[in-house]
Amino acid sequence: MHGPVAASRVMSSEPVTSTREAALTILLRLGQATATSMASQLGVSVQVMRRHLRSLEQEGLVESSCNTTGPGRPSNLWRLTARGRDHFPDGSEEFARGLLQTVAHCLGPEQLQTLLGQQAAAQARRYRRLLGDCPLEKRLQRLVELRRREGYVADYQPCQDRRSWLLKAFHCSVARIAEQFPVICSQELQLYRSIFPDCHVERFHWIQEGGHYCGFRVQQNTIADWKQSAASAPPQAPQKPPLDDLEGEAALWG
What we know:
Elements: H1 3-12, H2 19-30, H3 35-42, H4 46-58, E1 62-67, E2 75-80, H5 82-86, H6 92-107, H7 109-131, H8 136-149, E3 153-158, E4 164-171, H9 175-180, H10 183-195, E5 199-205, E6 214-220, H11 223-232, H12 244-253
Antiparallel strand pairs: 1-2, 3-4, 4-6, 5-6
Helix pairs in contact: 1-2, 3-4, 6-7, 7-10
Protein backbone atom coordinates (compact mmCIF):
# COMPACT_ATOMS: atom_id res chain seq x y z
CA MET A 1 0.00 0.00 0.00
CA HIS A 2 1.40 3.40 -0.99
CA GLY A 3 0.53 7.08 -0.85
CA PRO A 4 -0.93 9.35 1.85
CA VAL A 5 -3.31 6.70 3.17
CA ALA A 6 -0.45 4.30 3.83
CA ALA A 7 1.58 7.01 5.48
CA SER A 8 -1.35 7.99 7.66
CA ARG A 9 -1.89 4.41 8.80
CA VAL A 10 1.77 3.91 9.61
CA MET A 11 1.90 7.16 11.53
CA SER A 12 -1.17 6.25 13.56
CA SER A 13 0.90 3.59 15.34
CA GLU A 14 3.70 6.03 16.21
CA PRO A 15 3.60 8.61 19.01
CA VAL A 16 3.20 12.14 17.69
CA THR A 17 4.36 14.88 20.05
CA SER A 18 3.07 17.84 18.05
CA THR A 19 1.60 18.88 14.75
CA ARG A 20 4.97 20.28 13.72
CA GLU A 21 6.78 17.02 14.35
CA ALA A 22 4.02 15.08 12.62
CA ALA A 23 4.26 17.36 9.59
CA LEU A 24 8.02 16.78 9.36
CA THR A 25 7.46 13.03 9.62
CA ILE A 26 4.88 13.09 6.82
CA LEU A 27 7.29 14.93 4.54
CA LEU A 28 10.04 12.48 5.46
CA ARG A 29 7.85 9.55 4.46
CA LEU A 30 6.17 11.00 1.38
CA GLY A 31 8.93 13.20 0.01
CA GLN A 32 6.52 16.07 -0.65
CA ALA A 33 2.90 16.97 0.09
CA THR A 34 0.44 19.85 -0.02
CA ALA A 35 -0.83 21.66 3.05
CA THR A 36 -4.32 20.38 2.26
CA SER A 37 -3.33 16.71 2.21
CA MET A 38 -1.25 17.09 5.37
CA ALA A 39 -4.08 18.87 7.17
CA SER A 40 -6.42 16.02 6.24
CA GLN A 41 -4.03 13.38 7.59
CA LEU A 42 -3.44 15.23 10.87
CA GLY A 43 -7.03 16.28 11.46
CA VAL A 44 -6.40 20.04 11.54
CA SER A 45 -7.60 22.89 9.38
CA VAL A 46 -5.69 23.92 6.28
CA GLN A 47 -5.11 27.37 7.84
CA VAL A 48 -3.48 25.84 10.93
CA MET A 49 -1.37 23.55 8.76
CA ARG A 50 -0.15 26.45 6.66
CA ARG A 51 0.86 28.40 9.77
CA HIS A 52 2.93 25.46 10.96
CA LEU A 53 4.55 25.09 7.54
CA ARG A 54 5.42 28.78 7.36
CA SER A 55 6.98 28.57 10.80
CA LEU A 56 9.00 25.52 9.77
CA GLU A 57 10.02 27.34 6.59
CA GLN A 58 11.34 30.29 8.60
CA GLU A 59 13.45 27.85 10.61
CA GLY A 60 14.88 26.43 7.40
CA LEU A 61 13.39 22.96 7.93
CA VAL A 62 11.02 22.89 4.94
CA GLU A 63 10.68 24.55 1.54
CA SER A 64 7.98 24.71 -1.12
CA SER A 65 7.52 24.95 -4.85
CA CYS A 66 4.47 25.81 -6.92
CA ASN A 67 2.56 22.87 -8.35
CA THR A 68 0.59 23.82 -11.48
CA THR A 69 -0.39 20.32 -12.59
CA GLY A 70 -3.96 19.12 -12.38
CA PRO A 71 -7.24 21.06 -12.28
CA GLY A 72 -7.94 23.99 -10.01
CA ARG A 73 -5.70 26.66 -8.56
CA PRO A 74 -1.93 26.07 -8.22
CA SER A 75 -0.84 24.76 -4.84
CA ASN A 76 2.44 24.58 -2.97
CA LEU A 77 4.26 21.29 -2.64
CA TRP A 78 6.22 21.13 0.60
CA ARG A 79 9.39 19.10 1.19
CA LEU A 80 12.15 18.81 3.77
CA THR A 81 15.37 20.76 3.39
CA ALA A 82 18.74 19.22 4.21
CA ARG A 83 18.45 20.85 7.62
CA GLY A 84 15.00 19.34 8.00
CA ARG A 85 16.38 15.86 7.39
CA ASP A 86 19.12 16.53 9.92
CA HIS A 87 16.34 17.24 12.43
CA PHE A 88 15.81 13.49 12.71
CA PRO A 89 18.32 11.60 14.87
CA ASP A 90 20.87 9.31 13.27
CA GLY A 91 23.67 7.06 14.43
CA SER A 92 26.51 8.74 12.55
CA GLU A 93 28.25 9.88 15.74
CA GLU A 94 28.22 6.39 17.26
CA PHE A 95 29.41 4.98 13.95
CA ALA A 96 32.30 7.45 13.78
CA ARG A 97 33.31 6.71 17.38
CA GLY A 98 33.21 2.98 16.76
CA LEU A 99 35.22 3.34 13.56
CA LEU A 100 37.93 5.33 15.34
CA GLN A 101 38.06 2.75 18.12
CA THR A 102 38.54 -0.01 15.55
CA VAL A 103 41.29 1.91 13.73
CA ALA A 104 43.10 2.68 16.98
CA HIS A 105 42.86 -0.95 18.09
CA CYS A 106 43.95 -2.49 14.78
CA LEU A 107 46.52 0.03 13.60
CA GLY A 108 47.62 1.75 16.80
CA PRO A 109 47.34 5.37 17.99
CA GLU A 110 50.21 6.62 15.82
CA GLN A 111 48.58 5.37 12.63
CA LEU A 112 45.28 6.87 13.76
CA GLN A 113 46.99 10.24 14.18
CA THR A 114 48.50 9.90 10.70
CA LEU A 115 45.10 9.16 9.15
CA LEU A 116 43.48 12.08 10.95
CA GLY A 117 46.32 14.30 9.79
CA GLN A 118 45.69 13.30 6.18
CA GLN A 119 41.99 14.00 6.60
CA ALA A 120 42.76 17.43 8.12
CA ALA A 121 45.09 18.25 5.22
CA ALA A 122 42.38 17.39 2.69
CA GLN A 123 39.88 19.48 4.66
CA ALA A 124 42.30 22.40 4.76
CA ARG A 125 42.72 22.29 0.97
CA ARG A 126 38.95 22.39 0.58
CA TYR A 127 38.64 25.34 2.96
CA ARG A 128 41.42 27.30 1.22
CA ARG A 129 39.67 26.79 -2.10
CA LEU A 130 36.36 28.05 -0.67
CA LEU A 131 37.90 30.98 1.22
CA GLY A 132 39.76 32.25 -1.82
CA ASP A 133 42.70 34.61 -2.08
CA CYS A 134 41.51 37.66 -0.15
CA PRO A 135 42.39 39.68 2.98
CA LEU A 136 42.57 37.81 6.29
CA GLU A 137 39.44 39.36 7.76
CA LYS A 138 37.36 38.28 4.77
CA ARG A 139 38.75 34.74 4.94
CA LEU A 140 37.94 34.54 8.65
CA GLN A 141 34.41 35.71 7.96
CA ARG A 142 33.92 33.07 5.28
CA LEU A 143 35.42 30.35 7.47
CA VAL A 144 33.07 31.19 10.34
CA GLU A 145 30.11 30.99 7.95
CA LEU A 146 31.26 27.58 6.69
CA ARG A 147 31.81 26.26 10.21
CA ARG A 148 28.36 27.39 11.28
CA ARG A 149 26.84 25.40 8.42
CA GLU A 150 28.73 22.36 9.71
CA GLY A 151 27.16 22.63 13.16
CA TYR A 152 29.72 24.81 14.94
CA VAL A 153 28.80 27.90 16.94
CA ALA A 154 31.73 30.07 15.88
CA ASP A 155 32.70 33.74 15.88
CA TYR A 156 35.73 35.96 15.33
CA GLN A 157 36.89 39.35 16.55
CA PRO A 158 39.93 41.62 16.06
CA CYS A 159 42.66 42.09 18.66
CA GLN A 160 43.87 45.50 19.77
CA ASP A 161 47.16 45.11 17.89
CA ARG A 162 45.20 45.15 14.59
CA ARG A 163 47.35 42.29 13.31
CA SER A 164 45.69 39.44 15.19
CA TRP A 165 42.23 37.95 15.26
CA LEU A 166 40.54 35.70 17.80
CA LEU A 167 38.69 32.75 16.30
CA LYS A 168 36.30 31.15 18.80
CA ALA A 169 34.17 27.99 18.70
CA PHE A 170 31.58 27.80 21.48
CA HIS A 171 30.10 24.53 20.23
CA CYS A 172 31.96 21.85 18.29
CA SER A 173 30.06 19.37 16.13
CA VAL A 174 32.53 16.61 17.06
CA ALA A 175 32.97 17.55 20.73
CA ARG A 176 31.75 14.24 22.16
CA ILE A 177 34.00 12.25 19.83
CA ALA A 178 36.94 14.51 20.71
CA GLU A 179 36.41 13.76 24.40
CA GLN A 180 37.35 10.16 23.68
CA PHE A 181 39.95 10.98 21.02
CA PRO A 182 41.75 14.22 22.04
CA VAL A 183 44.03 13.84 19.02
CA ILE A 184 41.15 15.30 17.00
CA CYS A 185 41.67 18.60 18.81
CA SER A 186 45.39 18.50 18.05
CA GLN A 187 44.53 18.06 14.39
CA GLU A 188 42.18 21.04 14.59
CA LEU A 189 45.11 23.31 15.46
CA GLN A 190 47.04 21.94 12.48
CA LEU A 191 43.94 22.43 10.35
CA TYR A 192 43.79 26.15 11.10
CA ARG A 193 47.52 26.50 10.50
CA SER A 194 47.08 24.89 7.10
CA ILE A 195 44.05 27.04 6.26
CA PHE A 196 46.04 30.20 7.01
CA PRO A 197 49.61 29.44 5.83
CA ASP A 198 50.45 33.15 5.83
CA CYS A 199 49.61 33.45 9.54
CA HIS A 200 50.85 32.35 12.93
CA VAL A 201 48.09 30.36 14.66
CA GLU A 202 48.07 29.35 18.33
CA ARG A 203 45.43 27.92 20.65
CA PHE A 204 44.75 30.07 23.71
CA HIS A 205 41.57 28.51 25.10
CA TRP A 206 40.36 24.90 25.10
CA ILE A 207 37.09 23.25 26.08
CA GLN A 208 38.97 20.03 26.92
CA GLU A 209 40.87 21.96 29.63
CA GLY A 210 37.71 23.30 31.24
CA GLY A 211 37.07 26.38 29.11
CA HIS A 212 33.67 27.22 27.76
CA TYR A 213 34.98 27.61 24.20
CA CYS A 214 37.94 26.74 22.00
CA GLY A 215 39.92 29.82 21.00
CA PHE A 216 42.66 30.39 18.43
CA ARG A 217 44.75 33.49 17.84
CA VAL A 218 45.41 34.11 14.15
CA GLN A 219 48.17 36.64 13.49
CA GLN A 220 49.08 37.91 10.03
CA ASN A 221 52.76 37.33 9.24
CA THR A 222 54.89 40.25 8.15
CA ILE A 223 57.65 40.29 5.56
CA ALA A 224 60.13 40.11 8.44
CA ASP A 225 58.39 36.97 9.69
CA TRP A 226 58.71 35.36 6.27
CA LYS A 227 62.42 36.25 6.06
CA GLN A 228 63.06 34.79 9.51
CA SER A 229 61.11 31.63 8.60
CA ALA A 230 63.05 31.24 5.35
CA ALA A 231 66.38 31.71 7.16
CA SER A 232 65.59 29.00 9.71
CA ALA A 233 64.20 26.54 7.15
CA PRO A 234 66.30 23.63 5.75
CA PRO A 235 68.23 24.44 2.54
CA GLN A 236 65.56 24.28 -0.14
CA ALA A 237 63.47 26.57 -2.27
CA PRO A 238 61.58 28.75 0.27
CA GLN A 239 57.82 28.85 0.00
CA LYS A 240 56.54 32.20 -1.17
CA PRO A 241 53.69 33.89 0.66
CA PRO A 242 50.61 32.43 -1.04
CA LEU A 243 48.35 35.44 -0.77
CA ASP A 244 48.18 38.94 -2.16
CA ASP A 245 47.97 40.41 1.35
CA LEU A 246 51.73 40.16 1.71
CA GLU A 247 52.36 41.72 -1.68
CA GLY A 248 50.52 44.82 -0.56
CA GLU A 249 52.51 44.85 2.66
CA ALA A 250 55.77 44.45 0.72
CA ALA A 251 54.97 47.66 -1.15
CA LEU A 252 54.61 49.47 2.18
CA TRP A 253 57.93 48.10 3.40
CA GLY A 254 59.65 49.21 0.21
